[in-house]
Amino acid sequence: MAQPTEYYSKYPKKFKGTGIITPVLKVFKHMFKTTFHRPVTILYPYEKEWVPDNYRGRPGLRFDRCLGCGICVRACPTTCIELVEVADDDGKMVLRPQVNVGRCMMCGYCAEYCPVDAMTTTTDYELAEFNRYDLIYDPRRLHFEYTTDMMEVHIEEHLMSNLAKGITDQPTAFYNTDRPVLEDKKCIGCQKCAKVCPVNAIEMVVVGQNDKGKDIKRPKIDEATCISCSNCIIDCPKDALKMNEVL
Amino acid sequence: MSGLREWIVNRATDLADGGSVCLNGHEYSDIVGMSPYDVYNLPYDIGVKVWESLGGLIAWLINLFVPNNAVSFALISDTATNAMAIVLMVVVIFAIGFVTNLTMIWQERKFLGRQMDRRGTMIGPLGYLQCLGDGLKTFMKENVAPRAIDKKIYWWGVVLVIGTSVLLACMIPLSPRWFIVDYNTGLLLIFAFFALAPFLIMCAGWAQNNKYSLIGGLRAAELMISYEVPMLILFAGTVYMTGSFNIGDIITWQEEHIWLIVPQIVGFFVCLVCAIAESERVPFDLSEAEAELVEGWQTEYAGMKWGLIMLGDYFRGFVACALVNIMFLGGWSMPIINEFDWYYQYFPELFFVLKTCFVFIFFITARGALPRVRTDQIVNVGWKVLMPLAVINLVITILIKWIWDYGGVF
Amino acid sequence: MADEQKIESPSYDDIISLIGSKFGDKVKFRQSTKKNVRSINEKRRIFMDADREVILDLAYFLRDKLNFEQASMVTGVDWVDHMQVVYHITNYFNSITVEIVVNIPADDLHVASVAPVWGGANWHERETYELFGIIFDGHPKLERLLTPKSYEFFPFRKSYKLRGSQ
Amino acid sequence: MAQEKMNADKMWLTMGPQHPFSHGLWTLRAQVDGEIVTDAEPEVGYLHRGWEKECEQRDYQKIIPMADRLCYSASMTWSHLFCKVAEEALDIEVPERAQYLRVVADEICRIQSHLMWLAAVGTDAGNLTIFLWALREREFMLDLNVRLCGQRLTTNYPRIGGVRNDMPYYFERDCLRGIERFEKALWDIVNLTDDSSIFVGRVKGIGYISREECANLGITGPAMRGCGVDYDVRRDDPYDAYGDMDFYVPVYKDGDAYARFRVRIEEMFQSCSIIKQAMKKLESIPKTAPYRLKVPKAIPEGTHMARIEDPRGESVMYLISDGTDRPYRLKVRSPVFVNVSASKRMVQGVRLADIPTVMAMIDMCLGETDR
Fold first, then answer.
1. Mutate: best of B358, B361, B365, B373, partner A, most A CBs <10 A
2. Which domains does chain A have, with CATH numbers?
3. Using the beta-carbon criterion (under 8 Å), do C119 and D217 form an inter-chain contact?
4. pLDDT of D25-83, one tens digit each?
5. Which ipTM was obtained for this model?
6. Most CB within 10 Å of its CB: which of B160, B388, C7, C124?
């Protein structure tokens, strides 16, 4: 059984009035000590404190890795991320996230949920600007030079079904397990899902012909390349697609 | 430049030959070699020297354009020199007092910073210039006064509080040759001025039309009344021992016999506590207790008024430390090294200030180590602890004095 | 009388049987179906629905007889067609928390105040009043607490829509 | 209320919202008769932002960082509490490693929150050294937060079904070192406060509340244990790994401000002991053990309630879910909200100079009070 500490046991004794000698001596001693040692405060703009790699500063982006899937946009609690069209290295227009750092609350969800580790946290916390518009970081400016492994936050979730089976060494994440499933009756074959898929995992397959002789197309989802971004689900006009959550 | 020097030397020789310049009623030619306890006044001397250069320069410049005019001769006449020297003496004394005060502010901020494990002031060499910067910043603030105030008392209250504080600081002699007037009731007068502040603070607190400042002002009066009495009783002991109200005499007595801290060790600590309370510093800063009364009696004083109040507070702190120094630590006297000739030639002012700063360390440490005392406790301590101790100290002093003088009590 | 005496640390079954015998079908108990929640497994939660009329009697009974000393929380819920007031009452000796749900019809938002019973319920009831408009009869000072006194609407009702939604 | 009766002897002092004593935005209107406080009226609501209503518009995952912002110094316990109530709704138990990590994080949070309180006590009593020394120690605790989860205050560390990340490889060393250092440094601050007759004289015997009154007014946390109620949610209604922890709940029967002060200091020592135990236990759990469960986005229909021992008292969340991914209603029971309602009772009869010290023992945090 736990015991109270020395501090607690001192109390029942009647207060003797130790006077002011102990604190005065303590403070005096500390004065001499810190005269010869450095005080704990640091001269901030000239000296900086070391921050570990997993520090959650502003979000960073690796432009090449990003798919433009928009998971970060939906994960952001403050809606400070939006997808904008920018030219990539080849001059092609692609969708990339742009972050309003003035609104960002550094929760790190974008880095955590990113399926390809394109979004990262950074150790950059000095974000003051003269202008509010300067706080909007476009995809190129989000680049952070010293990205390390610790900054790619990974989700290492375990499936409850796996744990029940006794498997404890297979960490996974939603983008590995969750896949959209089609409710065939509702689908009208409009191909929207195939167009919005950022990884081209949806392929329209002809499954038959209707009364007028036109092809009936149904999306076929390549489960290996799908990243569970749910763009197709959101854009589906008839709510035919649904996310199948594996637990 | 050679023309200037030549001109001044000629004029000075003329004047010296005439023998008409007076210093405190003594002939100029008599000054050199006089007793330091009599009239030799270093600030006045500096004033004379400065005016000789300054007034001489002006007179010479005028003389260049209008040779042998009356104004030039009037500027370097003995009457003008004496008058201007007195003005410059005040300026010099105030300047030195101001620098001393800045040093003490710097000392407090730096020492307090070290006690709290931070750096303290950082601007300038060792952070010395921070106080000047702060003063400049306060000076440039807008001079705001609330509408619903009692204007006359609001302004005169703060002016008089600051004025008496600065006056007090200038009245403290730094050495036998550094004073304004060498008056025989010196210590008594200082105490009288010191006790004037709570009345003014109370008036100023009332005039601001603010509940916090009203309570603060009343607390200041309460505090002062309880701590003025033990202080005066201690003062009676000192005066009884040394037999004089004159600060110079008190210190001379201590120099010749012994520092009063030795027979009056109880009195020294009582005096320290009283001095902290008199200068309204933590842990006795009830009148400006920022936890419950926002800034106490200074709540409605903004900008430079507040800055000057803070400056005045430090002047009062300096006076309190200097009083402890004069009454118990022998003022400018140093036990061994004052045997040497060069000590009284060069160093007494410096050592006085150093000793005062040493006393101030106690003040700083008390501020660093102790929380604020409550109102009822503060009065209890004043009347029930310090007052009896002061009386005991007086009794001890009387006994020692009797033994000293008559070889026995009866 | 032995019955009137305070039971300092009543057991789970005691509480249910005593309340059941005192209030009959005015108070209905609910069973939780949760399997993995520790406090429910170890029988430290009791869930019950009470009629609006008996809430004050129930409160006095809980405090004076069963020694439930502290009102952790009083809150309102807007179910659009009716409202609920939910009480969480705690006993410090066996740390059992009782959850009492009182249904109130939407056209008559009155319920007896338990602030005289437990002082801790005072501000919670004020808050529920200002946010849901439920009036607690017998409350010592039923005024707006968090929102400005000039408000004439009840912001936490479902009929009060927020601007913009995600 | 001022118009009730003109009384020339008494005056109403408004302390707050911009007042050095009110740590945060709130007002205590005190009626004083000279220096004696005869009546008081707390007023809150300056920071009311409809937190509970906001949550009805957000996904469960997105509420976690919002729960962090309920209280600046107890962010870990608040987000923990929200995850707790969501787990209760999902009817799951988190993996063992996550439970111990949560305990470590919670206790670090408790220590830093109590240090923030100690700093506030220092300023309220008029001594800045206590303030700075306590904040210095708090800074080391915040550094541990940074090591563990990447942010100093808004930790966003617990997740529904576990924690965000396992502890980094250097955390164990840093944490044990930091705790050992802290235990020594706390004695320094104890020397400044508890060994100083002036400080003890300031807080002893003021703000008395009896045990029955304390329980009835719903005061919780250290303030309650200073009044003699022997109750701690961690021990009596254990959650996560607290059932396995061996710690002592300090209780004083005096019921004055000094007893509340002592309870908090002793709690800091006990928190150190809990952290050491949890770190020892974490060593025995393999590093590859699961620490986070995959949970569905939507929570099934039902009403759920969870409670936790916040640094300031017992905090409760009451969640009504309607089967979607957003809560139907989320009610927060803030400990300070109830404690501050009892401030009227606490300050009656004390002196004006005692109001800051009495109220400091409540440890105000307005973010969670007004919500």
1. B365
2. 59-151 (3.30.70.3270), 160-244 (3.30.70.20)
3. yes
4. 888 888 888 788 888 888 888 888 888 888 888 888 889 998 888 888 888 999 999 99
5. 0.85
6. C124
